[in-house]
Amino acid sequence: MDGDILLFFDKMPGALPLYEELERRIKTELGEVRIKVQKTQISFYNRRMFACVSFAKLRNAETRPKEYIVVTFGLGRREISPRIDAASEPYPNRWTHHVLASEMSEIDDELMGWIGEAAAFSAGKR
Questions:
Q1: What number is the average pLDDT over the span 52-77?
Q2: The domain spanning residue 109 has which CATH number?
Q3: Which domain holds residue 112?
Q4: CA angle 48, 51, 53 (to 5 degrees)
């Protein structure tokens, strides 16, 4: 495990297994990706960034789990799902979606389908 990734999870170490599973599935299902660790997020790239992990506070403290990751991905359309905590359209037909995951079972085929679609969308942008 990269030292920068371990340092990123220093403030929420219980969430590291969630990230490790997400990274494993992204690498297995999408092939070669670049990973960039920054102060507030870990980003996944093909030609461009297609997904990232952060600790964004999408929910108020009473409803937010103690240990979690927020998975953010961009699509060419708005996805409607109760799993999506927030979605915005920063540019026409470019939707950013945020999903909070606090259980290993939430790193599932549905989430990976969205991430796969985001990777394809990102790779096709000019």
A1: 94
A2: 3.90.1150.30
A3: 3-124
A4: 135
